[in-house]
Amino acid sequence: MSDACCGGDSPAQSDSATEPEGPTRLWQVGEMRFAAVAAPLLLAGYAAGWFGAPEAAGLVLKSAALLVAAWTFVPSTLRRLFRPGPLRNRIGVGTLMTLAAVGAVALGEVGEAAMLAVLFTIAEGLEEYAVARTRRGLRALLDLVPARATILRDGGEHTVSPDQLGPGQTLVLRPGERLATDGVVASGHTSLDTSAITGESVPVETGPGDEVYAGSVNGTGPLEITVTAGAEDNSLARIVRIVEAEQARKGRGQRLADRVARPLVPGVMIAAALVAGVGSLLGDPLTWIERALVVLVAASPCALAISVPVTVVAAIGAASRQGALVKGGAALEAMGRVRVVALDKTGTLTRNDPAVVETAPAPGYTRERVLDLAAALEARSEHPLARAVLTAHALRSPGRGPAPAEDVRAVPGSGLVGRVDGTEVRLGRPGWVDPGPLEATVERLLGLGATVVLVEEGGSVAGALAVRDELRPEAAEVVAELRRSGYRVAMLTGDHRATAEALAAEAGIDPEEVRAGLLPEDKARVVGELRSGGQVVMVGDGVNDAPALAGADLGVAMGAMGTDVAVETADVALMGEDLRNLPRVLAHARRSRVIMWQSIGLSLAIIVGLMPLALFGVLGLAAVVLVHEVAEVVVIANGMRAGRRRPVRGPGAGAPRVSAAHEVEARDPDHDRGEAEQPTGRG
Known about the structure:
single chain, alpha+beta, Calcium-transporting ATPase, cytoplasmic transduction domain A, Rossmann fold, 4 domains, six-stranded antiparallel β-sheet, 15% strand, elongated, disordered N terminus
């Protein structure tokens, strides 16, 4: 069992490497197993009275239910009270529940005490299960490290475990292999897929002197890498440490019910003690001690204990129907307080699917010819840029596949060379292929944030292709809706600033809110800086987003696109790939938080109202218990409102309809454009 129910040590503060991953099913939670035993005992106790069984039988069953349920929080509450430190840090809702149960038993209301204990145990079990779910995915990071690595030693290659790697060793990385640790390229050129670490959507051309990171995947050429960090200090290990630290920081924060109960508990204790003490001096001690116990029962947080769980369960169910999985009440409440939305670029604002957004032919060439030449060279390549070129060729020439070029060979760090119809053709980056008359076009495309490759035939430039990871169709509308709702919107990305600013302009994000060229630890740091504008939600989809997701006040993962670690580290996972779910679930959380506080306010009002009535003997124990039961029904009914799906103004509401011409352009970015194209937001 966890001490979470009464504010004990958070499991997030433990060493995740040595602890078990936690419950994976609800029935594995200790509190839920105890509740499954206590609830039937309590029902049987009441049923015994209804069917005329001896009163002693009902009392025994209710007492057994109380003992079973109370075992989940009373011992830990007592341990916490006797720990060193300020008293205000040692009391919580568990303390008040314990006092209420003791008071009810002293007045002979064992059934009422058992009901309080069972409800509280169920609420704590649900919360512990939600917390455990957020921790299980952390080990998925380690899957990015290969089981074996190859190093050069004593003039030969040797296969070792990544744990044996250390600074100064020379690591050999072949095409298609994943890098086991961080280092600097000593020799070789290649295109390196760094999306797991930096979020870069297009593979990065890498050569001698470039830094490379654990988890990156080698593309086209072999590399020799000088190791700069061991297994415990590489990029992935740092991500793990950041995530653990941020989760521990969250775990130390008190939950909503504890924050409410903290000032209430000492006030109730002092009031009851004064009633018993002062009353005994002025009148019959037995009468005033009994009234003090009734005051304790009047202050019992029956409705308070159930108000938050009922609202949370109803709201989470409604959120799932709106396309979001919310991991517990803390996440729901945090989502209602958010004021700043930080969006990752790759895979969140964009499709994470690079595409040819423009084909610019040189004088004397057509777009069809440029695409034919490029597709001929890329016909048998698995490079992401090759897939973009082949897709563009298929759109331009449906039903006619490219004729593969002959004698194709890769030039590491530069491009491809081959022969088409006996003529040498080259495809590669500007600088390796002279742009000639397309120099201004290349500069324009680079300024729009595109990756540009040039096609050369027989020594003359034939054209340029601009490849870019395009925005999701709904991205601009979602950003506009978030801003209309009063949120500050920022973009965080590992991509180059030119790419980031170009896409941010299309999405409607202010240039000063763009943070580019970020590593995972940088994203976590920037999230901390953004907190000056209010509580921050981070929305991301990849391993590189995990520290920021954990470090933000609320982490939201794009579910279908996200890696396991992103989804598990986040507090909320959006199902599917529709970004419109984000403003919808934020609006839903705001409404649910209002309902939650309504229930809490009602619960506290009842406590405040009942205490003086119990103090002066206006209400006896039976009346106090009746009021509590009615209050619980009202609070439950109010909480259930959070489960109703209210129409939420979608981000597309009122937005101009996309024209047919734009729909055609989305399928073929070059349709009907003249040679003298004007720069557009789409590139």
